[in-house]
Structure formats: structure tokens, C-alpha cells
Specification:
Elements lengths: L14 H8 L4 H8 L3 H6 L12 E6 L13 E3 L8 E2 L4 H5 L2 E6 L2 E5 L5 E4 L6 E3 L4 H4 L13 E5 L6 E6 L3 E5 L6 E2 L11 E5 L4 E5 L7 E4 L6 E3 L10 H8 L5 H10 E11 L5 E9 L3 E9 L6 E4 L5 E4 L4 E4 L10 E4 L13 E4 L4 E4 L2 H5 L3 E7 L6
Parallel strand pairs: 16-21, 20-22
Antiparallel strand pairs: 1-2, 1-25, 2-3, 4-5, 5-6, 6-7, 8-9, 9-10, 10-11, 12-13, 13-14, 14-15, 16-17, 17-18, 18-19, 20-21, 22-23, 23-24
Amino acid sequence: MTQNKKKVNWSELCPELVQCVFERLSFTNLKRGRSVCSSWRTALRGCVPKRNQIPWLLLFPQNDNNNENNNTSCVLFVPEDRDKTYKTRDLGAYFVKSSCVATYGSWLLMLDTLWNLYIINPLTGERIELPTTDYAQYERPSDIKPQDLVACLWIDDISKDYLVACVMGYPVFTKKGNHSWRRISSRYGEGRYKQMVYEPTSQQLYVRRYYNYPVKVWSFSGDDPQQVSEDNYPPVEYAFWDFLSKDKELHLKEEEFYVKEYVDSRLYIAVSTVSGQVLKVVNVLQKFKRWRFLVYKMHPVELTWEVVDSLGDEALILDMGITVVAKDIPGIKRNSIYFSGLDNGSTNPDHIFVFDLTTHEIEPLPQCVFSSVRFSDARWFFPGLDP
């Protein structure tokens, strides 16, 4: 006589065991586990998956009459699951009316309709209020739009220590515990600022102005930021013509073609999280949806920009202005640039892709990403990024 085996009821597993298993899995597997049953959902509440090592794409809901069903969630594309998209929790109508101006790790720096900034984690819904800005107190210039705001964010995911820097007519910053914005003084006067990148290891803020200005650098290692000499960072030339003159592969006929077919170009700075090396990145959009990217680094002795043939085992997340390790990590491409448009985010699917610096080819994203929702903006971000 054979004894009938007792049927296993997976919903009755010990909650500690469920947590122990799923905290070793990825975000997507953790999300699937939460949908199995109510007991697993309860057990996995607050469970943190293993550290993420790949960038995700975040699509923001529209804030207009086309926002079907009053959608107040973001859509997530995780490269590990190329045929699927995920939704964040309901972030509220207030979030939909705000604009994303910077990202760091799982956190977004948002600008509301009154031109106040706040920090929010779209995965958990946690929100951090920031001091009122000068633009919120006084009338701002009518020609300034949210996408024109230059800002950067750093935040420690555990302690919630943070640094936010932005330009409200002049550079300002605030940290955890501050109740107001503090002005960042400059030895060389002010100017029109175009981009900010903060490197937490060196605690340095890199600021790019117009093409013909040096990159400014401030150290935040003390109580008050101190400007580092600009002499170490020579002027950045006009992006497109610099691109043409220094690309060794171009011949005269090709150059004439690129001038004729030129549509638009942008210049960026980026910092390697591996070496701390400052990079200059030029991208050019040509007719027929042809893109070109060129990366420069600074020569340590001559202090001039020189072309970098390869990023090696790193990948560049251009939205964040950083490179990250990509060797032997499924879901991220080494020697590639993660790009989401010419204007700090895009609504054009043709401007959202991964560019392979080895082949100079574009890897478009799966159609399911863009067919899943009508979106107002798109950003690559990096949940789990080490502070």
C-alpha cells in the first residue's frame, strides 16, 4: 500500500523562508512573487531584491487629455525582460503634473508646477520635500521651461543623506538638514549653465557652461563648497565642428556629406564611476535617423581632449552623466551609450536607444515598450546604484 503524499500549499510557507529566497532574486522575480498570493505579498512587503546592476528605462505618464484612465503610474522597462514592461505604484496627480529634471539610483528629482523641487522614489512612493526655491517665491522669466532647469541629484539609499544642486539664475545647493538653498560662490563670475554632474566618491560637482567655456569644478568635501581651478579643464569647443575636425575617419567628401545632412547636435560631460575620469561626449543627429557619438577624455599631461576609441568594460548612462561597470553582467551592454533624447528626455521612440560604440549601430528598444503607454518623457535610471 502506498501512502498518499500530502499536497503542498505554497501559500503556507514560512514568511522568513519566502523572504530569504526572494531577496536573492531580481526585481522582476520579486514582483512576480508578490503576485502569487496574499500571504506572499505580505511576506515580501519591504523585501529588497539583490542589488541591481543594469539601467532601466522609465516612461512618464502624460499630463493632458490624452492621459487615458487618469494614469498616474510610470512604465518600467527592464532589459532583462525584453518582452515585458512593468508599472510603478500609483504616484498621484501631483506627480503627473511635475517634470523630472535629474535621477540618481532609484530616486527622481522632480519640479512641480510652482517651481519647487522634491525627491521621490517611484518604486516605493517615498518622498522627500526640499526647501522652497526662489522661483517659487518670485515670478520667473516667462521663457524658462522645466526642461531648461539644470540640476543634479545624489542620495544615499540607506541614510537618505542627499545633495541637490541646481541653477536658479545662479548655482545653488541644499543638503539633508538644510532649510534653505545656499548659493555656490564662483571666483570667475557667472554664466549660462548647461549641465551638472556630481561624483560622490571625490565629492566634486562638475558644471558645464557654453561650448567655449572651461568646465567648472566644486569640491563638496567640506561644509562649504570650494571651487577647484578651471585651468585643469580646457575650453570645450563647439560640438559639431569639433566632432568633424577630430574624427580621424572622416575624409573631405564625407565631411561635406555630414555638413549637408546635419540636423542637430549636443555636447555632454560625464564622469566614470570606475576611474573618476571626466569625459566629453558629442552626439550628432543627421538626416535619415543616422546618429553618431564621439567620446573624449583629457590627456593627463598635455591637458587637451583626445578621442577615446572605446569605453572598454564600461557603459555610459548619458541621462545621469556617469559610466558604470558592464563586464559580464547580463542585461547591460559594455562599450555602449544609453540614450533617451536630445533634450533631457524624449517623447520620440526613435531617440531612445542603446548605441554600440564598437559597431556604431543603434539597438532599438522592443516595440512593447512604446506601445504600452502614451508617455510625456523618458529617462534611463539606475535602481541600486551604489552611493
